[in-house]
């Protein structure tokens, strides 16, 4: 190569290099707006506790797409329904961030809600959809009505233990749907074991729970020198045995259950028995916690909005009357009660927003989103955006889901007809949402038909303190702060009809 040609070659390389570097720098200069962080740690100190409220407040200044740095890790927060659906409907934004302890070790990558977007996840997702899609969930209606009646009877007998009764109902309902178990008590060993699993898992998944998430090199430490790793591996072995036992006990049953459906379709979906057993366990763990939290938020709404309660009861009186309990045969004729289900999930989302991870660089509306970014849709704010839900968006108002004729209105675009985003977005929208909606309908219709739910008072009749805006961050699930309620039969025959219904069901 001559001197001149060598010079031209080096010049060309330099031009290409500077062009690439210039483009990279240009892209990074077009990051979404966001608050300035501190050296090294970035915005960590700004994101402590109730992050959804922080994101909502900062969104007033920085907009619907915001950028944060978490010790160098890009974090993109979305405050808009349109932006969330635009991004999360695409495959490159359908992955989950790596969670070494909760996902990789404690569940062996089998917990589908935390699993990475790939072939294994697609097979498990497809199998779950087949067992829980809208066309077949009506086979679980008898279970949901049974549990609603049992809950009503329990609340009439022991109103002071309403939180415990709600938790039992949610756990027992999902246990029956997933494993074809009869209604069970809080003391049922299987329920206790799975609830313990759920608690361990959600706490392990919380940011900052384990140093290895920030320092992945710690994964190379042998188990005998790392208790956190040894414990996680031990729980994976124990929980695998538990889920396999539950799955095997249900797969041969003739009565419908999610586990039986998985077993029948195992060959078609290419899932092993181990994978199927974990998929069934995942559905229970995700469903029980979220259902009980949603029921608790609904109870709070009934205390805070007595006029809403009365309107739903008036609809029930007109459609059902007062000489029988509601059933799913009444479903189409109870639009306000169905709207109450939607409003419960919109008003207080039990998941503030599960994170996604981008797998490729992307540019959206001129802003650069680098590969490997963590993305969070601020579900809390999106569900309460006045532009979509009106100036009273922070209040509990089921009427917002009805049209001018009093029937359910079509949902906002991008919400899969739910008219809220509490079930998530795109390819990772909650696969059990139809079960969740039907369970809430059965509980709300039955309780409001039989009961009046009011704010508790002291011995002098003064209302007890109530923190309507407080919450408990229980792992990844958000619950209301503890509160007391006054529960009483709504009319003189209600308790007797509930007891007869309970006797006819043949349980307890």
TrEMBL record:
GO molecular function ontology, one term from the record: monooxygenase activity
Name of the protein in its database record: Cytochrome P450
Cofactor(s) needed: heme
Naturally occurring in which organism (per UniProt): Guyanagaster necrorhizus
One Pfam family cited in the UniProt record for this chain: p450
Annotated TM spans: 6-24
GO CC, alphabetical: membrane
Annotated binding of heme, by residue: 430
Family of the protein in this entry: Belongs to the cytochrome P450 family.
InterPro entries: Cyt_P450, Cyt_P450_CS, Cyt_P450_E_grp-I, Cyt_P450_sf, Cytochrome_P450_fung
Highest taxon in the source lineage: Eukaryota
